[in-house]
């Protein structure tokens, strides 16, 4: 077990942990409420079109996460972070070009789909306009955690929540027309939420406008060195989480895509709770395990794994059991009696697949702290490979049931890869020590 800090430090981290949990609840509530309300008040076809566009937006987000957010979250808390004190400013400068390129990709995809008369096309164009603001907001939230300012992240997320909630009330009033208002609403809310971390972190405008080519190049190379593994599998890794709505929509129609996404929404709180733990945890693990090195398999690593596994299991197991027992009633409560009740059988597959999150969280966070991004990438690639080789063929053969079975396999595949790495690394060290 990682040595217990002093009482004052423990108290400070308790406050940080509570702030992180509150921040994640507030931030993710926007996504959760929007999906629930849209699924409730829109037709299954209209909600399916939105779900497809939203999934493609997250597909475009994948390179940004791989090359900017993930390396920054791991490197920002390390004592040897590249660029020194100006690291954040250099990351902010470098991310702008990538964000604009990815927004351009969404524009091209939106125009192409619109040319074929797809209702997804206009939604993608609106997401393209909102993308730079949403990307930047995600980065600055991570910056707050890297700097140990979870309360600042909470304040920014609260502004985001309040602006978005005001729009949610309008969405409910305008019904089906409200789906096209969601992307600009999120972009506006993201822009409003940026002000708090920008001011709180004291990011000087002068430093952002002055380019230091040498330092910027060093930061970019370091991000590439660590992020290339995530980028290499990122296009595939994100497939295991975002391809389902587009694939189901293409094969079975937008109504079936909407039904799958509506059931999947019930698991959003679980993934967001794990994300809330990861936000403040990764910078701390990076500092604690930094001495072990990238190939570390020492006692600190083993203690971290043994601490994180029961924490993740304590969240995932009760949640999955609750979905199995009362998930069908929740579908009626959230979406209206009978609307998606016939799709409640999907809960069995999604609940079992959620068990893989135990190993993915505990071992994935440990690997990131050790800067073993190649291991994280291998897990994501395994999930993507399972999606392509198992889910898509089963979808063609058995429809929605095949997609659900493939989803289960794709959720468990990363857990198997990460578990094999942990057993090999930690077991070998323990054997040599004995």
TrEMBL record:
Chief site of localization: membrane
Keyword Heme: no
Signal peptide, first to last residue: none
InterPro entries listed in its UniProt record: Poly_Biosynth_Transport
Segments passing through the bilayer: 21-41, 47-67, 96-117, 152-174, 186-209, 229-254, 266-285, 305-326, 346-363, 375-395, 401-423
GO cellular component terms, semicolon-separated: plasma membrane
Transmembrane is among the record's keywords: yes
Entry membrane topology: Multi-pass membrane protein
Compartmental location: Cell membrane
Swiss-Prot/TrEMBL keywords: Cell membrane, Membrane, Transmembrane, Transmembrane helix
Family: Belongs to the polysaccharide synthase family.
Protein name in UniProt: Membrane protein involved in the export of O-antigen and teichoic acid
Organism: Tistlia consotensis USBA 355
């Amino acid at each position: 077990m990682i040595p217990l800090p002093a009482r004052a430090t423990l108290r400070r981290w308790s406050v940080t942990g509570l702030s992180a949990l509150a921040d994640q609840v507030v931030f993710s509530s926007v996504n959760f409420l929007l999906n629930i309300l849209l699924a409730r008040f829109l037709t299954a076809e209209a909600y399916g079109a939105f779900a497809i566009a939203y999934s493609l937006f997250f597909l475009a987000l994948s390179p940004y996460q791989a090359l900017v957010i993930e390396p920054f979250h791991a490197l920002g808390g390390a004592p040897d972070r590249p660029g020194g004190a100006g690291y954040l400013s250099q990351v902010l400068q470098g991310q702008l070009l990538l964000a604009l390129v990815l927004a351009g990709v969404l524009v091209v995809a939106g125009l192409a789909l619109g040319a074929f008369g797809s209702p997804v096309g206009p939604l993608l164009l609106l997401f393209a306009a909102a993308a730079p603001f949403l990307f930047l907001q995600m980065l600055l939230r991570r910056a707050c955690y890297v700097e140990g300012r979870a309360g600042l992240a909470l304040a920014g997320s609260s502004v985001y929540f309040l602006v978005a909630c005001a729009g949610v009330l309008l969405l409910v009033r305008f019904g089906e027309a409200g789906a096209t208002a969601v992307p600009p609403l999120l972009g506006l809310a993201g822009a409003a939420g940026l002000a708090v971390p920008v001011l709180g972190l004291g990011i000087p405008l002068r430093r952002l406008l002055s380019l230091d080519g040498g330092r910027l190049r060093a930061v970019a190379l370091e991000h590439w060195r660590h992020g290339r593994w995530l980028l290499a599998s990122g296009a595939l890794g994100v497939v295991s989480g975002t391809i389902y709505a587009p694939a189901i929509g293409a094969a079975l129609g937008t109504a079936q895509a909407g039904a799958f996404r509506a059931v999947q929404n019930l698991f959003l709180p679980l993934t967001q709770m794990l994300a809330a733990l990861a936000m403040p945890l990764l910078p701390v693990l990076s500092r604690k395990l930094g001495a072990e090195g990238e190939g570390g398999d020492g006692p600190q690593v083993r203690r971290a794994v043994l601490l994180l596994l029961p924490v993740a299991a304590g969240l995932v197991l009760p949640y999955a059991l609750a979905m199995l027992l009362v998930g069908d009633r929740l579908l009626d409560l959230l979406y209206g009696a009978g609307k998606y009740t016939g799709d409640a059988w999907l809960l069995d597959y999604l609940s079992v697949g959620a068990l893989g999150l135990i190993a993915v969280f505990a071992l994935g966070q440990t690997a990131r702290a050790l800067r073993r991004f190649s291991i994280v990438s291998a897990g994501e690639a395994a999930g993507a490979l399972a999606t392509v080789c198992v889910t898509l063929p089963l979808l063609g053969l058995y429809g929605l049931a095949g997609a659900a079975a493939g989803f289960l396999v794709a959720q468990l595949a990363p857990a198997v890869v990460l578990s094999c790495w942990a057993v090999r690394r930690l077991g070998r060290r323990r054997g040599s020590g004995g």
